Amino acid sequence: xxxxxxNIDDLVRQRLGGGEEPERAGAWLQMRDLLDQEMPxxxxxxxxxxxxxxxxxxxxxxxxxxxxxxMYTANRNGDGANKGNTTDNNAAASNTTSGxxxxxxxxxxxxxxxxxxxxxxxxxxxxxxxxxxxNGVANKQKAGKIIPIVKQANKQILASNTTTPDNSxxxxxxxxxxxxxxxxxxxxxxxxxxxxxxxxxxxxxxKQKSRAAASPIIAGANTRGNKVSSSAASHTxxxxxxxxxxxxxxxxxxxxxxxxxxxxxxxxxxxxxxxxKHFAAHPTSASTGKSANNTNRxxxxxxxxxxxxxxxxxxxxxxxxSTNGINAINATxxxxxxSASNTRLSxxxxxxxxxxxxxxxxxxxxxxxxxxxxxxxxxKDEEIAEMSKQPTVRLQLSEHLVMAPTGETYYKLDTxxxxxITQQLGLNKRAQSPVSGERNAPGKPGGSFAGAPGMASAGxxxxxxSGNANTTGTNMSGNNSAAQSASNPNILPAASxxxxxxxxxxxxxxxxSKMGGNASTAEKLTATFNDVKFHxxxxxxxxxxxxxxxxxFFGPASFKGFQFGVTGNxxxxxxxxxxxxxxxxxxxxxxxxxxxxYYTYTPTGGGQYTKTVNPLSxxxxxxxxxxxxxxxxxxxxHFNFYVGGNIVYTFAINTGASTLAATTQQxxxxxxxxxxxxxxxxxxxxxxxxxxxxxxGISYQISxxxxxxxxxxxxxxxxxxxxGAKMISNQLYKSPSLQVSIGYRFGGNKxxxxxx
Amino acid sequence: MSIALAYTLTGHASELEQLIQGCIxxxxxxxxxxxxxxxxxxxxxxRRYIDQEMQAEEIMNNGFLRAFQKVKQYNFQGSFEGWLxxxxxxxxxxxxxxxxxxxxxxxxxxxxxxVHKDHADKLYYDQLMQLVQALPDATRTVFNMYVMExxxxxxIGNILGISEGTSKxxxxxxxxxxxEKIERLGLHLKM
Lengths: 756, 191
Fold this sequence. Notes:
The structure holds two protein chains of two kinds.
Chain A: E1 5-7, H1 8-17, H2 27-38, H3 42-87, H4 89-97, E2 102-103, H5 109-115, E3 150-151, H6 155-163, H7 192-196, H8 204-213, H9 216-221, H10 240-247, E4 264-268, H11 292-301, H12 346-355, H13 361-373, H14 381-387, E5 392-403, E6 409-421, H15 482-487, H16 494-502, H17 507-515, H18 521-537, E7 540-552, E8 559-572, E9 576-589, E10 593-595, E11 598-605, E12 608-614, E13 616-619, E14 622-636, E15 639-650, E16 659-660, E17 668-670, E18 689-701, E19 706-718, H19 723-733, E20 737-745
Chain B: H1 13-24, H2 28-47, H3 53-70, H4 80-99, E1 114-116, H5 117-121, H6 125-133, H7 137-147, H8 153-160, H9 164-190
């Protein structure tokens, strides 16, 4: 064989044996599609779910830590507040006079002591507080620490209360000028317990101490005079309770309650839970016997208001308080109703008062100061008459023995029912200004009020008596204000109503009865319409910020990125809200490119063509968009469930120059020219576009201001028109996107714990 | 966009095993890497039988799919590339068998064909591949199977369902056509 010749088999084997073909762009995508079709990622799915569950677990862990930290912090703050309340009497006094005359009072003995500036018993402070809150925002119960709040309002507020439909108080506690102000948020009966009831807890130790310190005088009548005190008060607007609470200032606590660990109380009228101890609040009395100046300050700050400048709680619990001024403190002359069981009429109180032989000079001084420095608070009889129609609210409370996580036990007082009694109280004349010295004058209208039975004279048996003419000549039902009783001894107080068996009615029941069986359908519809209109008009708005991460996992391409923006939440009631957001999205491309190969056919003669592949690939780095989600949310506990729509504006994609890769494949010879001779994606197919989609998700309220949001968003339509643009939309924009965000909300009704 | 994998099998046995294990777990990332690792060689194999690029890729993908489905059967004994190549080839053979008609022809004596070295030296992979792809389907299949895969006529006959004589005829026919085209191409190159 001639060496110049080579066998064809060897030639082909040699030249083609080690040959390789370059990978065509997009080959793997087709392979992946085939695999997805024939070999679904079952195990991969498990891995995915593992990762997803892992991520969720991490989020839950972080949330738990956040919540735990929040609770812990809140708990510590609560303790701090207790300490402050129990140790700083002046602070308490200032609280009572700060802001809108929001006066929070706990009926606990501790508070009594506190108010009386007695630091001897301050160590017994339990969970009770004397707190002032601004604008009637009820203090929240934190970690078993309950802060009762009693607010007072001026008589205008009371007047408005009487005229507000559904017994709703539309007045605002900020109406210091004497004018009523419509509340921005009504509270339905459903909501009332949250705001109406402020629970006071006390641990056993404190109770025991209190018992030990109880005055024998009281002990005789009140076997458990030192038992856990309770007060229910809140600012709740839009209902009688609130209004009454505002007007209420004192908390009667009688010792009549038994020592059972569970008992019910009815608090009539003035939002004051009454229980056991004798104490009465009197606006005119100096808040503390310690200093009459406290009273003066408070009155000055609250000029024009019906001031409950001070609470002098009858510190019957301790003789140590005997030197502490006037213990009887009344609120605005509005009723301070003891529970039915507590509504012993004044005789007892009087008698008690009568037993008080000691008058606190300090208290007297304070009264004197009050009298001289608060003329602006005097009320006209006409105005007082308006208040006589003030509805009465009766709270039925139940006390439970609760075991705290720390191992301590305390009593927790819950509101079990709220009753609105619209009967006229017969309050012909309103109590005089708390600062009015006339109150102390026996028999004069507006004079000393004898609060609840035990409240009369407020002072502890040992205390005061304080010359409180409070008890003079007044048939004080526990519900009557001192002024009222003074001027109209025969008035039947609201408490007596409860005593006559009208207790236990809730607001709803009352409202229902209001509607009555005689109400026509039209009236009901009208009422419903009014309610709806009222709710819509009272929608609350809260702005906020949100930021988080997002990822697209289920489409042909996987993008991950971040988003941030602003939010606005419109709350309608407590359960529903509409959340609008405006967010910027940045999605980072993960080495994904759009392939759009096409072919070139070149005639080679003989009816054959040379087919050349032109790989065309578009790459990009990021996708930018602005989205406007609008969702309707339903709140359940700390969770919000929501669905809604999403408007998307997607910015044009900057692909740089479309990458026309060099032909890596040798042309092939084909017998006929085929199709796909032009790229289907044009440069302008990457332009911006609008889209519409849906979203659904869930969020968790970590704290009143912070929430964790997890949602799924998908664009289902956009205005892409050309085939290339549609292809881009399908591959880049229409995949479901999972988003995790942290939101923070400013202002709003945070205490409601609603979503942002 | 294809991602060229820098490493080869040599010296990366452990990596290949990891890829195979990933494929056994049906992990897309491992499958992608394995696919892109063997794409060039497997595609070259397929292209010798299938002239249409997209068709060839589809057949090769089917072969890869079979491989991924059966990868559990690979016992890590022997060359994985050889195992994969066999699967890919069977995918090609199935396609050819279904889509190629063989006319019964009988050739009792084989005859080798030779080309001048000058012509052969100027032949490159792409050119020779085009020439092979230009062979008639049946002839090309038999030629490749005999020359490149090393099958005997008997084996080719069994695989394609044809007689040994027909296989020999197609082999001779392929050699003859290639010689002519190479010689023509060589003349063209000289010009």
